[in-house]
Design goal:
Helix content: 40-55%
Strand order of the largest sheet: 5-2-1-6-7-11-10
Shape: globular
Radius of gyration: 23 Å
Number of strands: 11
Number of domains: 2
CATH class of the largest domain: Alpha Beta
Largest sheet: 7 strands, mixed
Strand content: 5-15%
Distance between the termini: 60 Å
CATH architecture of the largest domain: 3-Layer(aba) Sandwich
Structural class: alpha/beta
Order of helices and strands: HEHEEEEEHHEHEHEEEHHHHHHHHHH
């Protein structure tokens, strides 16, 4: 790959480096980290200047293993940062255990100095645990969205690709980090350089903070049907208080029988079963990502009866909520296993 060399005059102009400190938490996501650091390297290369200086940190200075098993050697342990530095907290799997007391306390201390602090992927959870996102807009990977909402009600959580709220930034993870960094490069050095970096990354469509993380409903389900998409949208927005099939049908101007045929034709399941699967998927996320009790998870997903929740969960995932959580409690497993058209269909 080639690019136009910087002019001698431009190369000799003094330029102030912006320092980025990447804090790698245990089991961080490699893709999100690479998508954040590579645009800075390419910006330096394309400009012919060292616009950005990057340093890798871990809590103790020891190497860190990311979620794909690769071990990454860092430059230093957590230390001092300046007011105009940028701190990138790179999270990944099992973020609650990776957000150690040492990291949390360090974040609180440096946060008082006013630097820009960014949560990359699930690093947003670490920032929130340190109280750095209270009454701020933020985002996190969609898979962690529900658990985050339950744990940090004081954060204005969105589903955007990235969010910049003053000196706090959050990125949803994956390639969303590219879009955040391109926005910063454009703000620092203009859109031409950001576009040049995007071209080098073969990143054809630069997203903004107004773009959403997930594919549209028609793309996700592989069906382009406006009424079906609208019903699923209502279902996804009404997990805690499920809407009846009759109300769903009325909302999109069809009969309950027509709605049933629509789901059978395109999704090979009834509306009730599809809705149940959505609710159970959210329940599984909450069980894996929060300390909510099984009963509170059940309530958050629209189940009034813990025993019914346990039966439906076992039918879907082959285990009970208690075993999924690893809790050693007593549960009500009485009764026969629900079939696909019995209790599993609804309450």
């Amino acid at each position: 790959m080639s690019h136009a060399p910087a002019s001698p005059a431009a190369a000799s102009d003094p330029v102030r480096q912006r320092r980025f400190f990447f804090v790698l938490l245990e089991r961080f996501t490699m893709l999100a980290f690479a998508s954040a650091i590579e645009p800075l390297r390419i910006a330096n290369r394309m400009s012919g200047r060292t616009l950005y200086h990057t340093t890798l940190l871990s809590e103790t200075g020891a190497p860190v293993r990311c979620s794909n098993g690769t071990q990454v050697v860092v430059d230093a342990a957590l230390g001092e940062v300046a007011h105009d530095d940028v701190v990138m907290i790179c999270g990944g799997n099992d973020i609650r255990s990776s957000s150690t007391r040492g990291v949390i306390n360090w974040l609180r201390r440096i946060g008082r100095k006013g630097p820009v602090i960014c949560g990359v992927c699930t690093g947003s959870h670490t920032l929130a645990a340190a109280g750095l996102l209270d009454r701020r807009r933020a985002t996190i990977h969609w898979e962690n969205h529900d658990g985050f909402l339950e744990e940090f009600p004081d954060v204005d959580l969105t589903r955007s690709v990235f969010v910049i709220d003053g000196n706090r930034m959050t990125s949803a993870g994956g390639t969303a980090s590219i879009d955040l960094m391109l926005a910063l490069i454009a703000d620092d050095h203009g859109k031409d350089l950001a576009n040049a970096v995007s071209d080098q990354l073969i990143h054809a469509a630069i997203r903004t903070d107004r773009d959403m993380q997930r594919l549209s409903i028609p793309t996700r389900i592989g069906v382009r049907h406006p009424r079906l998409s609208r019903v699923i949208e209502i279902m996804e927005a009404s997990i805690e208080d499920p809407v009846s099939p009759a109300e769903l049908a009325e909302e999109v101007g069809m009969s309950t029988r027509q709605l049933e045929r629509l789901f059978r034709r395109y999704l090979n399941r009834s509306p009730k079963r599809y809705y149940m699967e959505l609710r159970l998927a959210k329940a599984r996320n909450l069980l894996m990502q929060t300390d909510l009790s099984v009963i509170n998870v059940a309530l958050a997903c629209g189940f009034a009866s813990p025993s019914h929740f346990s039966k439906c969960y076992r039918a879907q995932y082959g285990t009970t909520p208690y075993r999924e959580r690893g809790a050693h409690g007593i549960e009500d497993e009485a009764g026969a296993e629900p079939g696909p058209d019995s209790d599993f269909e609804g309450e």
